[in-house]
Design goal:
- It contains 3 helices and 22 strands.
- 7% of the residues lie in helices and 41% in strands.
- The protein has one domain: Distorted Sandwich (Beta-galactosidase, Chain A, domain 5).
- The protein is mostly beta strands.
- The chain has helices at residues 5-12, 128-133, 252-259; strands at residues 17-21, 27-32, 36-41, 46-52, 80-81, 105-112, 118-124, 138-146, 150-158, 164-166, 168-170, 173-175, 183-185, 191-194, 200-203, 214-219, 225-229, 234-241, 245-250, 275-282, 288-290, 295-306.
- 43% of the residues are buried.
- The termini are far apart.
């Protein structure tokens, strides 16, 4: 049975970190310290928002029409894709991007760091449904460290007697001024699989820009990415380790309207115009083999600075 907000507050609340339940019954951790604010939903270990205190606008985007319900994914934030990315290789009935983002996680630690940051640790709670989809002895932990920067560590420990192979991503949505005017730097010269063009393999020439639907998996790249946003007058940095794929995604008009949970943006434009996903991943060519008894960690550090 999931912990209640009351029991979590009794066990883990500290200055700058508290727990609450919403009308859906989902439980959230709210973080507010000198460096930044964030909210994290215990279902999915899903960080939904983050804003450094020196930024007028959030860095992590959350749809105003995001739906909160047990077993349903949330539109926006930083969903955890695990233990596969995209559709399951053999079972079409299994959920896309795995089950980690729609099942309960347990809080296993919380502390205020000497740096002034707040840290929370969560453990994926296995159940019969997850074991049916992933019958391997595996421990998955997520640690979020919140302040002026945001750090997320996703650690897979193989407790099985044989190697396991995982695909994974932090499917992070970033708040931007307008999708048509940003640039994503850091992927120049990288090979990518273009899902909008039937999975064709291409090479990135220059910065990534968006003038229509974009769904690309850049492979064999551990590079830091930078979102240059002239409208919000800032750069957002996405620095990672333990990740050799980067996904860039925007649904554009038609796909966003079919999804129905992006909401309106400014000036009656679709809310999708104010977000872009730059995902730190291990997908396609870069799925990870974790030997028996060993662990693999995907780490991402997010920061924002003025242009």
């Amino acid at each position: 049975m999931s912990d209640t907000a009351q029991t979590l507050n009794e066990r883990f609340a500290i200055p700058g970190l508290s727990f609450r339940a919403d009308a859906s019954g989902l439980v959230f951790a709210d973080i507010d310290n000198a460096g930044g604010t964030a909210t994290l939903c215990l279902q999915g270990a899903h960080l939904t928002t983050w804003r450094p205190k020196d930024q007028a606008e959030p860095v992590v985007w959350l749809s105003p029409l995001a739906k909160y319900a047990p077993g349903k994914s949330i539109r926006g934030g930083a969903p955890v894709c695990w233990p596969w990315f995209g559709p399951h290789a053999t079972e079409s009935g299994f959920p896309g991007h795995g089950f980690a983002r729609t099942v309960d996680w347990k809080v296993i630690g919380a502390k205020a760091l000497d740096s002034g940051e707040t840290q929370i640790r969560l453990l994926l709670a296995q159940n019969d449904a997850t074991r049916a989809q992933w019958p391997r002895a595996t421990r998955l932990e997520l640690t979020a460290t919140v302040g002026k920067t945001l750090r997320i560590d996703l650690t897979t420990t193989n407790l099985d007697t044989e190697d396991i192979v995982i695909g994974e991503a932090l499917h992070t949505y970033f708040h931007i001024g307008d999708i048509g005017r940003i640039q994503v730097l850091g992927l120049e010269g990288s090979e990518f699989v273009d899902k909008v063009d039937g999975g064709a393999r291409k090479t990135q020439a220059g910065p990534v820009t968006c003038a229509g639907e974009v769904d690309r998996v850049y492979v064999n790249t551990a590079a830091e990415c930078v979102i240059v946003d002239p409208d919000l007058k800032r750069r957002v940095r996405v620095a990672k380790s333990g990740s050799n794929s980067t996904v860039v995604w925007t649904p554009w008009t038609e796909k966003a309207e079919k999804m129905g949970d992006f909401g309106p943006g400014r000036a009656n434009q679709g809310g999708w115009r104010e977000m872009v996903c730059v995902e730190s991943a291990n997908a396609l060519d870069n799925v990870v083999s974790v030997p028996a008894g060993e662990a693999h960690t995907l780490t991402v550090v997010y920061s924002a600075e003025a242009l």
